[in-house]
Amino acid sequence: MTESDNPIQDDPSCRSDHDPQSLPVSAAWERIRTDLAPVAGVERVSTRLALGRVLAEPVTSDIDVPAHDNAAMDGYALRGGDIPSEGSATLRCIGTVMAGHTLDGSLQAGDCVRIMTGAPMPAGADTVVMQENVRRDADQVVIAAGETAGQNVRPAGEDLRRGETVLAAGQRIGTAELGMLGSLGLVEVPVYRRLRVAFFSTGDELRTAGSSLDPGQIYDSNRYTLYAALQALGAEATDMGVIADDPDAMEQAFADAASFADAVITSGGVSVGEADFVKDIMNRLGQVGFWKIAMRPGRPLAFGTIGNARFFGLPGNPVSVVATWYQFVQPALRRMMGEDPEPPTTFRVRTATALRKRPGRTEFQRGILRRDDAGELVVTTTGSQGSGILRSVSLADCFIVLPHDSGDVAAGTMVDVQPFHGVMG
Ligand SMILES: Nc1nc2c(c(=O)[nH]1)N[C@H]1C(S)=C(S)[C@@H](COP(=O)(O)OP(=O)(O)OC[C@H]3O[C@@H](n4cnc5c(N)ncnc54)[C@H](O)[C@@H]3O)O[C@H]1N2
Ligand code: MOO
């Protein structure tokens, strides 16, 4: 195919490095977001297996959690009206109630009950005084003024209320959510089926661990990166290996992958070199929505459709794979999994080091967050930001996001950072 036969090569955006037609990051995400919907298919899985899955229907509580008014402290349950306004009062202890048990009968004025944290409040009691604040002598309990009626009681349903929707459809089940499902006593929950994702690397230069390297060859790292990322996301991932820079072999691999996968991810061969066939093949088998984003790393990212599968052609450079994964592919797959992901958490800190930046693209530089001598949170660059330096990601704990129009950034300037890790999974 000559250059003028090729609709993609004819697009002036493909030839210029300073490309006014490359999509700004926010516009590219909006295009992807509006194009994607949750995959069809819901299954009921046992509650523990729902970890990392996405709820397909809202969860409504059939019970109050906690199920009964209960003590928040170990101490004595009593009637608020028996708290003295000054001095002290002596109450009679008529029994003990432990968590998991109930007390027959009901408190009268002047009575109290020994109670443990979590035990149901005895009938007639509305207040708990912690044991450190009383003096006990046989069945006599002396309480002093200063306690407040109603204190230290957790009302039934203070966590989850019967009849209430407690988790929305589209919620990913993480640590707290699994605990909540447990607290409702649910045996199984409805979740979207797992997303089927096929991934492969392209390039004649790539070898897989276990074989030796001839001159010009390198080991494939992108399939390892993508394997890790897909595992963490909970996708049903199929590794299709390395495909050579051979258009026929690639076309076959694309068609095979699209025949069973909801999403296909490739890396390499998406730029403008003579062996960069990805976009042509996507256009032959389906269509390319767009393929250039004003970002670095990760400018050539081809997004499109082949049959029923969504297709993500990532650039070959290993850091570009990481950047495009986190900024686009992962949120896109989460949308297909049934979530509506929020933009990544971003906060502003001072950069302790100067940062080089070219206007006209959003840059995702790699940074390390730390406290400076004054205790202020600052970020420093991991150093060289080349798209082939995967170590720049391993050393980092955040992306430093430098906006489209910004140029070089002086040390001491406030910048946006996106931390890699949240507190909870
Ligand atoms: N004339 C131009 N050249 C390049 C442009 C451009 O606009 N005009 N864009 C550059 C940018 S930015 C990127 S990113 C790369 C992306 O190119 P490709 O997606 O076509 O990737 P390849 O050329 O196949 O590979 C790039 C680089 O990454 C290495 N690689 C590829 N796959 C793997 C893998 N699985 N594991 C480890 N390393 C891999 C490959 O050997 C190359 O060194 O294009 C620029 N060029
Ligand atoms: O944008 Mo490329 O992804 O710089 O290396």
UniProtKB/TrEMBL annotation:
Region (Disordered): 1-22
Protein name as it appears in the record: Molybdopterin molybdenumtransferase
GO terms under cellular component: cytosol
Organism: Aquisalimonas asiatica
GO molecular function: metal ion binding; molybdopterin molybdotransferase activity
Record-listed E.C. numbers: 2.10.1.1
Pathways involved: Cofactor biosynthesis; molybdopterin biosynthesis
Cofactor: Mg(2+)
InterPro entries the record matches: MoaB/Mog-like_dom_sf, MoaB/Mog_dom, MoeA-like, MoeA_C_domain_IV, MoeA_C_domain_IV_sf, MoeA_linker/N, MoeA_linker/N_sf
Alphabetically ordered keywords of this record: Magnesium, Metal-binding, Molybdenum, Molybdenum cofactor biosynthesis, Transferase
Entry's Gene Ontology BP terms: Mo-molybdopterin cofactor biosynthetic process
Origin organism lineage: Bacteria, Pseudomonadati, Pseudomonadota, Gammaproteobacteria, Chromatiales
Enzyme class label: transferase
Reported function: Catalyzes the insertion of molybdate into adenylated molybdopterin with the concomitant release of AMP.
Domain MoaB/Mog intervals: 198-335
Family named by the database record: Belongs to the MoeA family.
